Amino acid sequence: MAHEEDALEHERASWKPSPGLAVAVPDPVQNPGLPPHRARMTDKDPAAMTRAVRTVYTLFYLSLAGSIWATAAYMLFPIESGRIVDIRNNNLFIGLGIGLALLALGLGAIHWSKAVMSDKEFIEPRHATRGRDATREGAVQAFRDANEESGFGRRTAIRGSLIAAVAASILPGITLFRGLAPHSDKSTEEGALAGDPVALLKQTMWKEGERLAHDPSGEPIRAADVTLGSAVHVIPESLAELGHSEGYLEEKAKAIVLLMRLLPEDLPAEHNNLDWAYDGIVAYSKVCTHVGCPVALYEQQTHHLLCPCHQSQFDVSRSAAVIFGPAARPLPQLPITVDAEGYLVAKSDFTEPVGPSFWERH
């Protein structure tokens, strides 16, 4: 079989056409060229061109109005009150303004390119790129031609409306940055500002003698009932007595605590304030110091607390120090002890602001 295959291969290699035999050679693919140019209505009718130009700059001015409205909505519907309706209106009307601004700007640019700009096809031959004077002059001429074809230089209404719309489109974004700035209100006493995060987040409902209670039942917690390795969600007893009245959620968001019990030997004195713990029981703010998510995942073998939002980890055996993630500081600790009846009580409020770090904090 191998000898037969070698013979066939040799025969194919040595074959040559007979002198009188014609061999068909396919023709190369011909360049079909550009299709015939199809004139648009705006190319044939000056009135149609006028209407198209008017539509373009109307859309650009509509975009301008949307940007201005989004900026105004930020001030007309402030979210500082904290009311749900104000927050809803703020998000709704700012979003509608920004959406209108970007949609109208995009539609105007598309209509301009399709109906007003020159759409004649042309062939641009390739050539080597050189930094010669002729090349630079050609580039300048290309910009001149583009300006002529687009009508940017001649059509002042389109040019002016486009520049105004693009410039105004960044205003809502700049305005929203105002929400990151500190707010001040001189209505509080002793120089504390009502809008100051330090004052707002440093004072919670915890006070000396305040009993620790289960969340949400409000049942006080006995130290003897806290088992080793457990993690209990805690609120002040007086907060539970308020019920879901005005301001309940705001106070709970600041005062929520996670209570854990470790072996006393797992709390080395060099890394912990043992005066703030009771028989291995410690209490830390449940509000992550990164952006305020609830830190509720406790690993009892390693004594680590995990924030599920951005994976910050805190070591409970070392005063809730940050061991991983973007959080910048430990969780604030609530000093606790027991009363005469064996119930866990707070020794004081937190000694530092709870919640995320911020630039006003010293």
Automatic annotation (TrEMBL):
Its domain of life? Bacteria
Q: Where is the Rieske domain?
A: 254-345
> Pfam families given for it?
QcrA_N (PF19297), Rieske (PF00355)
Q: Transmembrane ranges? A: 59-79, 91-112
Q: Which GO terms describe its molecular function?
A: 2 iron, 2 sulfur cluster binding; metal ion binding; monooxygenase activity; oxidoreductase activity, acting on paired donors, with incorporation or reduction of molecular oxygen
- One of the record's GO cellular component terms: plasma membrane
Question: Matching InterPro entries, A to Z?
Answer: QcrA_N, Rieske_2Fe-2S, Rieske_2Fe-2S_sf, Rieske_Fe-S_prot, Rieske_Fe-S_prot_C
| Compartment(s) of residence | Cell membrane
CDD domains per UniProt: Rieske
Q: What exactly does this protein do?
A: Iron-sulfur subunit of the cytochrome bc1 complex, an essential component of the respiratory electron transport chain required for ATP synthesis. The bc1 complex catalyzes the oxidation of menaquinol and the reduction of cytochrome c in the respiratory chain. The bc1 complex operates through a Q-cycle mechanism that couples electron transfer to generation of the proton gradient that drives ATP synthesis.
The family line of this record is:
Belongs to the Rieske iron-sulfur protein family.
What is the name of the protein in this document? Cytochrome bc1 complex Rieske iron-sulfur subunit
